[in-house]
Amino acid sequence: MPPKFDPSSVVEVYVRATGGENRVAKVSVVPSASALVIKALKEPVRDRKKEKNIKHTGNLSLDDIVEIARVMRDRSCARQLKGTVKEILGTCKSVGCTVDHEDPVDIQNKLEEGELEVPEA
């Protein structure tokens, strides 16, 4: 049979059971890859109610992509930075921007063939 106690003393029993630890959840906002890509494009602010499903035209350099990949590195499933860069290039393709005035898929193919190098450090 469970122990019986006064319902008003539930807090006291809980504090005794947990040892009085103060558990506070820490909440932080982490931007997604697409948000970082759109921010790097430096486009003007638009009214989201009037303009829907916009394609973001613009051009990013490969250095910008590498910097975004470094920010996203801890949340990526890739083993190396090169894989994270390829993930960001896929995000660029879906957002609609170009990288060094080329299609992001072409840059991915160049990375795979070894024509372009991504610094690890």
Automatic annotation (TrEMBL):
InterPro entries: Ribosomal_uL11, Ribosomal_uL11_C, Ribosomal_uL11_C_sf, Ribosomal_uL11_CS. The keyword Translocase does not apply. One of its GO terms (cellular component) is cytosolic large ribosomal subunit. Residues 30-99 form the Large ribosomal subunit protein uL11 C-terminal domain. PROSITE patterns: RIBOSOMAL_L11. SUPFAM superfamilies: Ribosomal protein L11, C-terminal domain. GO terms for molecular function: large ribosomal subunit rRNA binding; structural constituent of ribosome. One of its GO terms (biological process) is translation. It holds the Pfam family Ribosomal_L11. Belongs to the universal ribosomal protein uL11 family. This is Large ribosomal subunit protein uL11 C-terminal domain-containing protein. It comes from Apatococcus lobatus.
